[in-house]
Design brief:
The chain is α/β, with parallel strands linked by helices. It folds into 2 domains: 2-126 and 273-336, Medium-chain alcohol dehydrogenases, catalytic domain (Quinone Oxidoreductase, Chain A, domain 1, Alpha-Beta Complex), CATH 3.90.180.10; 133-268, NAD(P)-binding Rossmann-like Domain (Rossmann fold, 3-Layer(aba) Sandwich), CATH 3.40.50.720. The protein contains 11 helices and 15 strands. The strands form 3 sheets. Strands 3, 4, 5, 6, 7, 14 and 15 form a 7-stranded mixed sheet that branches. Helix 11 (314-325) links the parallel strand 14 (305-310) and strand 15.
């Protein structure tokens, strides 16, 4: 099968940052399913893995990365119980396994969901990482619910990216929260409003921007961008007994002591935790992906993708990484095979 990988962590401009190669189609065993991939979504996490995962090492065989994907089940292991050959699925793989920049991929059935029946492979490929991230972050890490938290305020720092696009909709429509998002360009501000934000402010002067709107504190804050950059503002803005969560990678220490006097809780979210550590509730990702698919089938959420590149090629993978590294991407970026 065709795959695209790398053996060294290099700048995307380097000719060898990605290259195409041929490798054997893997054989599913146990609870693995073999998926013929039809579309993938490229995430900011992909660029970080390419740039930093190997350090100064050079691998003897190429590493394949990539998470979001949609496709068709073409093989099953002998312990598979959730899927059969021919099922259309979508999922986010795990960081310690070969990824989706390939024609075929093995995936643990417990972290795979059935593709929304009335949505395309392109639309479905954009869903998995945002859905898992936000379902887990808001429900399992922050313990929010419509029954207890409706009409409370939540601030998403980084509202126009793929995860932010889903987060705005989920918080507004699923939890009935007052949604504040950050964006700094006219097109990203409008994007956040189009997806349901009640208020959009510029993150570059966050406290002052919110104060101008008469807002001095927020019940919940979610960092989707840069924890170290925004930490002091988050600590200042969070309401007493509030909750803060993050998905970003800190570049330095984070002083949790500033949250003590307010009795504020803090949580991390990483989409690959359950499969990587084989947690007892790993199958919950299968369930939440199916719940998300059902909501998308009813048009409860709007599609997340904003750009589609055609073809599994080195050129398209490098173009996708270049766009994401520019910091100017809006929504999800999909590569259709």
């Amino acid at each position: 099968m065709k795959a695209i990988g790398f053996t060294r962590s290099l700048p995307i401009e380097d000719e060898k940052s990605f290259f195409e190669f041929e490798t054997k189609i893997p054989t599913p065993v146990g609870n693995q399913i073999l998926v013929k991939i039809k579309a993938i979504s490229v995430n900011p996490a992909d660029t970080k893995f390419r740039k930093y995962a190997l350090g100064d090492k050079e691998l003897p065989t190429p590493r394949i990365i990539g998470w979001d994907a949609a496709g068709e089940v073409v093989g099953i292991g002998d312990e598979v119980s959730l899927f059969k050959i021919g099922d259309e699925v979508y999922y986010s793989g795990q960081v310690d396994k070969p990824g989706s920049y390939a024609e075929y991929q093995l995936v643990d059935e417990n972290i795979v969901g059935f593709k929304p029946k009335n949505k395309s492979m392109v639309e479905s490929a954009a869903l998995a990482v945002p859905a898992i991230t936000i379902f887990e972050l808001l429900l399992d890490r922050m313990y929010l619910s419509k029954e207890n938290d409706a009409k409370k305020s939540i601030l998403f720092i980084g509202g126009a990216g793929g995860v932010g696009t889903f987060a705005i909709q989920f918080a507004k429509k699923y939890l009935d929260l007052k949604v504040i998002a950050t964006a700094s360009r006219p097109e990203t501000v409008q994007w956040c409003y189009d997806y349901g934000a009640d208020l959009v402010v510029n993150h570059r002067d966050l406290v002052a921007e919110l104060n101008k709107e008469g807002i001095t504190q927020v019940d919940f804050i979610v960092d989707l961008a840069n924890l170290n950059q925004h930490w002091n503002n988050m600590a200042q803005l969070i309401a007493p007994e509030g909750k803060i969560a993050s998905i970003s990678d800190p570049t330095g220490p984070v002083d949790l002591s500033v949250l003590k006097n307010k009795s504020v809780s803090f949580a991390w979210e990483f989409t690959s935790t359950r499969p990587t550590f084989n947690t007892k509730d790993k199958r919950k990702q299968h369930d939440l992906l199916n719940e998300n698919a059902a909501l998308f089938e009813q048009d409860f959420f709007k599609p997340l993708h904003n750009e589609v590149l055609k073809g599994l090629t080195v050129e398209n993978i490098k173009k996708a990484h270049t766009i994401l590294e520019s910091g100017k991407n809006i929504g999800k970026l999909v590569v259709e095979f």
